[in-house]
Amino acid sequence: QVQLVESGGGLVQAGGSLRLSCAASGSIFSINGMGWYRQAPGKQRELVASIVSGGYTNYADSVKGRFTISTNNAKNTVYLKMNSLKPEDTAVYYCNGFYRLLAWGQGTQVTVSA
User: Fold this and answer.
1) 104 with 17: CB under 8 angstroms?
2) How far does the chain reach from its first CA to its final CA, in angstroms?
3) What CA–CA distances, in Å, run from 57 to 30, 54, 85, 94?
4) What distance in Å separates the CA atoms of residue 111 and residue 114, rounded to the nearest whole number?
5) Cβ of 72: how many Cβ atoms within 10 Å?
6) Pair 10, 111: CB distance under 8 Å
7) How far apart are CA 60 and CA 38, in angstroms?
8) What is the pLDDT of residues 15-56, one digit of tens each?
9) Of residues 32 and 81, more confidently modeled
């Protein structure tokens, strides 16, 4: 079973940037698609970005143009570059499979102050 460990979160002012990383204990290439999800307090977990075989990406409308998902298959790592952060981006961010969910990691907290 692939295990996922997210990192890179923190406290940032509105308009700032962060880059999240997700290290997988096994090959993410075999998973065939990865996503970044987030869960804000009192809200359901939502998918914000995905990347599938061929490098095709998709984004939630709320982050389109500001977030970029990428992978380094050689390092079994998925990244989420977040620019122009807004207070409403505050959440715990998780990575996981896109077509097939694995066990959730602990996530990484992103807090954006106004």
Assistant:
1) no
2) 40
3) 17, 9, 20, 17
4) 10
5) 11
6) yes
7) 11
8) 999 999 999 987 776 777 999 999 999 999 999 999 998 899
9) 81
